[in-house]
């Protein structure tokens, strides 16, 4: 059962010392006695002895651990070591050939749950240079065509804190690349690497509701959340306890993994801040292999860094204590229009009216987010055909919370009136109203597809959208228009204001990207080209260059802003400034001090500029050997 640990007694604690209580799986820890006679799994000591070697040890190297030592490592793990074999290997002629397995992978290769339930593969395979593509039906390539070296070699199937500690120690002591997979959804490839030992935290599903707790200046409801809990599971828990916890838009994103550690926006962000703002304490395995507690008073700098300063960087989180809010209602109003054949709910307008309508929507974002609501929207475009010129479609939702349907409708009315005034023939839609966030987020089938494509993003600062006549407003809207109209790409934004005021205590003091704090719009531009195995490297490079040309227009239009690290291009120019802003120097110093071994590397992560993945072919990918520059 998923939430078997719910059988735990529900705690009601009011004293500060009580919040360091672990889940049972965290009480199983690695001891000095366990490591006494085994240098493979010894703890790290600071400062480290000698300089780190230039490159991580890669499969096939002389000093790659022997099978005997891997077996001993597996024994210390109680048998939790899994060989890193991608499911598609079942479709290749060789030791993993398996007809049933191959049928499954063919049917489910684009499923988010298939990816998150597999110990080895990340969702996006271009990040590993598409090492083991699903072969065409009827073909049976040799297993040598499935490049197993490009994937993590072994995976620790984590069910205890001790498993995580053993993995960190074994990887560090043997100079092997370490990767952390939770759901595997990361778009940048921060969750995977060729030749790595992978820590798979997905099985940590425990949840505990705490009706009342005090942590520093916070007094109220809380919950303790295991690292592997995903959005759809959290919505079920919210319904069960009649509570609210922010969640990602994707049903199978993890709650306190990469999403939280990079910030984590939701439809509640303008009301209660980011996911990283909800954290009261964290249980963490650090680069030296120690299992530690971090909160505003103990390991405060680690606590600061882990909340917004980037995942896979300072430690492996096994659980978090988070704030929990009362249940409240959610109201959504859909506002759509297009230049193609219209309908009453999505009327047809001219090109110029279309773009004017979008500017009107943008001009209402300050009002919407000041009311603690958000915008969620897409501009889609269809290429010209023999019978029709290029068409554009605007699909948007205004999401308000803690409001009646009638009040929500009245709130949206001025926006509809402004759209009507320029000739967009829309009636104010009846809001779709949910009594609780749990009901709004409930997914009977949480499976969803995530593609093997690329995109880039930019944060539009709030100040740029305050005055629709300002040059900043015009520059931002012009760049977005060009991305879609000239680039022919799809564009998407989520519009919210995660200010320090919304962050509250202890969120206000965290390593969240200051550019995100100042933003009103997370603007994302999607490539239409495939980065799959059927395209050549030259095609991939050309596609990315073209995408980047249009992303640059957004960057130029918003000088001094940055991008949201969790939904971004791994080839983002100057990722240190874009993703971390003024926190970068402090984060880098903390990282250097606590992880001089470079145990935690991830593309675009703090200190990643000191490393390079060898054997990549023109784009940032993760399949090769990791080396210091
Ligand atoms: C369908 C979909 C919808 C999304 N919607 C949103 C959204 O609404 N809002 C938003 O902000 N983002 C959203 N995202 C982006 C999301 O924030 C990132 O994809 C994020 O990296 C996912 O984290 P994960 O832990 O689920 O995935 P993974 O790929 O498993 O991990 C991501 C990163 O976190 C690290 N990591 C994971 N767990 C831990 C841990 N316990 N300790 C230390 N490091 C860890 C990994 O090593 C990796 O670097 C969405 C993504 C998808 C695919
Ligand atoms: C470690 O080795 C010493 C000496 O050989 C031995 O006395 C001790 O029992 C060993 N400890 C463990 C945990 O195996
Ligand atoms: C680890 O040990 C378990 C239990 O003995 C075994 O099932 C598993 O195959 C082993 N893993 C590897 C990679 O050999
Ligand atoms: C999965 O996606 C690939 C690439 O887009 C596509 O070719 C394939 O048909 C999809 N498979 C399924 C089962 O949807
Ligand atoms: C991971 O471990 C759990 C618990 O021991 C087990 O049920 C599951 O089958 C394992 N998964 C894999 C992929 O080995
Ligand atoms: C807690 O609140 C008090 C009173 O507002 C304030 O003085 C103190 O600095 C706060 N503590 C923290 C850790 O924020
Ligand atoms: C859920 O919580 C809300 C807000 O506290 C409250 O108004 C409502 O009555 C509760 N519902 C149930 C079924 O307990
Ligand atoms: C506006 O739309 C309504 C409903 O679709 C339609 O009845 C009406 O004729 C339209 N008005 C104009 C001016 O197009
Ligand atoms: C496009 O026009 C051609 C010629 O008039 C016609 O045969 C075809 O059916 C049209 N296609 C569509 C999608 O309308
Ligand atoms: C609308 O703009 C697109 C892109 O610039 C152009 O291809 C199309 O012809 C225009 N449509 C009309 C009806 O003018
Ligand atoms: C397999 O991947 C590794 C690591 O990326 C690379 O060094 C090797 O050349 C690849 N082998 C083949 C046959 O492509």
Automatic annotation (TrEMBL):
Instruction: List, for all copies, the residue spans of the domain called FAD-binding PCMH-type.
Output: 148-327
Xref: Pfam families = BBE, FAD_binding_4
Superkingdom in the source lineage: Eukaryota
PROSITE patterns in alphabetical order: FAD_PCMH
Gene Ontology molecular function terms on file: FAD binding; oxidoreductase activity
Q: Which UniProt keywords apply?
A: Oxidoreductase, Signal
Similarity comment: Belongs to the oxygen-dependent FAD-linked oxidoreductase family.
Q: What is this protein called?
A: FAD/FMN-containing isoamyl alcohol oxidase-like protein MreA
């Amino acid at each position: 059962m998923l939430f078997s640990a719910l059988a735990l007694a529900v705690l009601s604690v009011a004293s500060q010392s009580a919040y360091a209580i672990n889940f049972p799986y965290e009480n199983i820890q690695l001891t000095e006695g366990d490591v006494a006679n085994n240098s493979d799994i010894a703890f790290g000591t600071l400062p480290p002895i000698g300089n780190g070697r230039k490159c991580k040890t890669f499969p096939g190297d002389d000093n790659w651990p022997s099978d005997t030592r891997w077996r001993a490592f597996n024994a210390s793990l109680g048998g939790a070591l899994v060989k890193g074999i991608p499911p598609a290997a079942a479709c290749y002629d060789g030791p993993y050939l398996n007809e049933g397995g191959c049928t499954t992978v063919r049917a489910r290769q684009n499923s988010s749950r298939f990816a998150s339930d597999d110990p080895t593969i990340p969702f996006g395979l271009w990040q590993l240079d598409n090492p083991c593509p699903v072969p065409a039906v009827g073909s049976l390539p040799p297993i040598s065509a499935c490049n197993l070296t490009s994937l993590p070699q072994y995976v620790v199937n984590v069910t205890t804190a001790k498993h995580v500690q053993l993995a960190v120690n074994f990887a560090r002591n043997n100079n092997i690349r370490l990767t952390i997979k939770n759901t595997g959804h990361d778009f940048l490839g921060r969750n995977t690497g060729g030749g790595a030992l992978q820590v798979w935290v997905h099985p940590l599903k425990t949840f505990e509701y705490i009706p009342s707790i005090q942590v520093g200046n916070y007094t109220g409801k809380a919950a303790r959340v295991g690292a592997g809990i995903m959005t759809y599971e959290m919505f079920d828990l919210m319904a069960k306890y009649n509570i609210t916890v922010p969640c990602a838009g994707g049903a199978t994103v993890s709650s306190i993994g990469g999403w939280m550690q990079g910030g984590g926006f939701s439809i509640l962000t303008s009301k209660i801040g980011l996911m990283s703002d909800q954290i009261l304490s964290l249980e963490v395995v650090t680069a030296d292999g120690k299992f530690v507690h971090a909160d505003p008073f103990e390991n405060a700098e680690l606590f600061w860094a882990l909340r917004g300063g980037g995942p896979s960087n300072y430690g492996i989180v096994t659980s978090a204590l988070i704030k929990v809010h009362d249940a409240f209602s959610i109201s959504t109003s859909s506002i759509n229009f297009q230049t193609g054949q219209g309908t009453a709910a999505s009327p047809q307008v001219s090109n110029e009216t279309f773009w004017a309508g979008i500017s009107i929507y943008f001009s209402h974002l300050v009002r919407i987010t000041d009311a603690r609501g958000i915008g969620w929207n897409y501009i889609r475009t269809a290429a010209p055909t023999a019978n029709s010129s290029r068409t554009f479609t605007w699909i948007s939702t205004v999401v308000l919370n803690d409001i009646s349907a009638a009040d929500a409708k009245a709130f949206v009315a001025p926006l509809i009136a402004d759209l009507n005034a320029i000739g967009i023939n829309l009636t104010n839609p009846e809001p779709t109203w949910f009594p609780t966030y749990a009901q709004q987020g409930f997914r009977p089938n949480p499976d969803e597809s995530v593609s093997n494509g690329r995109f880039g993003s930019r944060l539009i600062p709030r100040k740029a959208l305050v005055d629709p006549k300002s040059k900043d407003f015009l520059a931002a809207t012009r760049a977005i228009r060009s991305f879609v109209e000239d680039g022919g790409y799809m564009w998407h934004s989520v519009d919210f204001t995660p200010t320090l005021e919304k962050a509250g205590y202890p969120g206000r003091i965290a390593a969240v990207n200051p550019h995100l704090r100042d933003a009103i719009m997370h603007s994302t531009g999607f490539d239409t080209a495939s980065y799959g195995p059927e395209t050549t490297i030259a095609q991939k490079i050309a596609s990315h260059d073209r995408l980047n040309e249009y992303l640059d227009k957004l960057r130029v239009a918003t000088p001094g802003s940055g991008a949201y690290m969790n939904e971004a291009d791994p080839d983002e120019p100057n990722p240190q400034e874009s993703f971390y802003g003024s926190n970068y120097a402090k984060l880098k110093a903390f990282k250097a001090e606590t992880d001089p071994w470079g145990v935690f590397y991830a593309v675009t992560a703090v200190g990643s500029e000191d490393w390079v993945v060898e054997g990549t072919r023109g784009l940032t990918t993760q399949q090769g050997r990791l080396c210091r520059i």
